[in-house]
Amino acid sequence: MGLIEIENMEFYAYHGHFKQEQVVGNKFIVNIAIETNCSKAAASDNLKDALDYQKVYKIIKLEMEKKSFLLENICKRILDTLYEHFTEIHKARIKVSKINPPMGGQIGKVSITMSR
Q1: 106: domain CATH number?
Q2: Angle between helices 71-85 and 53-64 (to 10 degrees)
Q3: N or C: which terminal CB in the chain sees fewer CB atoms within 10 Å?
């Protein structure tokens, strides 16, 4: 078993409960960890035997482009889409963070982490 981690993916997107957030947008950071069997790819050194993490990134990028009101919804959509495309995923954990959320104070980020 192996763990693929793609960390600190940065996106500018238009997610949020407040109308202004969906107009002005904000910076988001996404981290994903995927447990999968890496033994075949490790032995063959061939991309066709691996879970293609460039495709993982592209899926996350496309999902981040779709507006959502809640971080929870973003996490769920990304996990759903990843599991649809990659049957070899044993477990996945995603963390989506909104940088400088408009919560009335000095807050660096707010994050939601979900796993399946």
Answers
A1: 3.30.1130.10
A2: 140
A3: N
pTM above 0.90, yes or no: yes
Q: Which domain holds residue 8?
A: 2-115
Residue 7: phi, psi to the nearest 5?
A: -120, 150
Query: For 92-111, what is each residue's pLDDT tens digit?
Result: 999 999 998 888 889 999 99
Amino acid at 27: K
b vs e for 89-111, b when ≥16 Cβ sit within 10 Å of the residue's Cβ?
A: beebbbbbbbeebeeeeeeeeeb
Question: CA 70, CA 39: separation in Å to the nearest integer?
Answer: 37
Q: How many domains does the chain have?
A: 1
Per-residue 3-state assignment (H helix, E strand, C coil) for 14-79? CCCCCHHHHHHCEEEEEEEEEEECCHHHHHHCCHHHCCCHHHHHHHHHHHHCCCCCCHHHHHHHHH
Residues β-bridged to residue 98: 28, 110
User: Among residues 109, 34, 36, 31, which one has the least CA distance to residue 64?
Assistant: 31
